[in-house]
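Exercise 7 asks you to align residues with tokens for two separate proteins.
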Amino acid sequence: MKHAPIRWLGACLLSTAATLPATAAPSHLDSIAQRGTLRVCTTGDYLPYSLLRADGGYEGIDITLAQSLAASLEVPVTWVPTRWATLLPDLVADRCDIAVGGISVSLPRQRHAWFSAVLDVDGKIPLVRCADQARYRDIAQINRAEVRVIEPRGGTNEAFARRELPQARLTLSDDNTAIFRELREGRADVMITDASEARFQQRRVPGLCAVNPQQPLQYSEKAFLLPRDDMAWKAYVDQWLHLSKASGEYRKAQAPWLGDVAD
């Protein structure tokens, strides 16, 4: 019987050890420093945020911001090409430390990843041929069997169209940049997209018009996509973003694409 307390103590220690959390994985903040590069996933097909140029380089608002974030960490950027349908899986599979490029905040994404602090408020609106602005102003006018809606595959635009426009004829494109040609040349009628992209393409593509950009069909927000459960990395990104906005660097990154005031 005199050995019972020892056995009891051993059992308690084992039980306590079993309830302790496993050693936490290193933060991406540390991994980036050890690796010496910031891995950034981006689709490269969504102006004004991210565009893959013919020369293999990237440009856009979020590209400039990602380079600024890397500079704050004193490392270069390694770009990781992705598509909207594989953006979240690539991040979850640890192919990148952060995903950028006009990413909309959504609850389905939130289940598997974290978002940075909000970059800007946006909203879904129709982008159409200017001659058709009066025909496609609201859900009721667009959600009809004869209306041809076109969206990039795998993003929140597709999700919106499937949820809100089930009667429309939906076409999905693997090339977001080709959608605007399809609209302009009459092979599609409506693209539902964020007001920021619609306003940008309105200035860029003659004949296309953003419909009611001040009255979006759905509220949305833009943010960077981050690995889930890495609080140290999220805190760093959020603090960098806060300082970028306070210093004017954030607005400076927007100015070449949206003007001095992104309205």
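Second protein for Exercise 7:
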Amino acid sequence: MASWSHFLGDVTRTQFLKDLYAEIQDDNVFNGAAALAYYWMLAIFPALIFLLSLLPFLPIPNLEDAIMDFMGEALPQEAAGLFSNVLSQTVESSSGGLLSFGLLFTLWSASAGLYAIMQQLNITYDIKEGRSFVKARGVSILLTLGFLLMIIGAFALIVFGGTLQEWLASFVGRNPVLLAFFASLRWIIIIALLLLGFSMIYYFGPNVEQKFKFITPGSVLGVALLVAASLGFSFYVSNFGNYAATYGSLGAVIILLLWLYLAGFVILVGSEINALLEHYNPEGKQKGDKFERA
């Protein structure tokens, strides 16, 4: 794997960190993350309702349990409980009408969140959106569908992995090595899907010409920061931040908004890293460039 010196060239790590901080300030990444959290808050529940309305029609047992179990591990308890309430209400009222309504409402609402990401990524490359509204919104809708399919596929693999574990255990017994492998399999799949998700956002999001790369410095650091931030924030809320005592029932909403803010910040910082490293490359795009240099 390429070292950081391969990407930085003659630039020192100290200078890289200074330049990255300057770019974060110039591009108002903190404000951009707040805007993304707002749009995602409007999009996430319609998307969840549509996704959970679709699950009963799929021949995958216990898929809802796998999704909620992971949310309980990845999100703070209050935020996971908020999703759990939506899950129980959706499952009880699941119907074809809800699915058809959710399809139209989700594609528009959830794509608004991804459309906001696209606009923020243009800022990291110092370019203006040159795609028509229809084309840009179409890209955001396709990304929305892609992420919904990735979520279903990832957790389907997790569910089938558990079935495979039980099948193998019936033959070879509860081998500790086998149990450890399947315990880590879920996170291996999710991290791989996170890398793919970051790569898709960084490739299709900004209005620039670039080659698709499954692994980039920004995506690797973005996934690492997102996992670390999620675990750290969950630990803080569980042990120190008693939002429920201060804000009552609004505590779960505030916690979810803070987590979405962290996620948006991580995505934008990853894009800033990719853009900055490309600016360091004499053959790469410089600030304001949309196309690759000949």
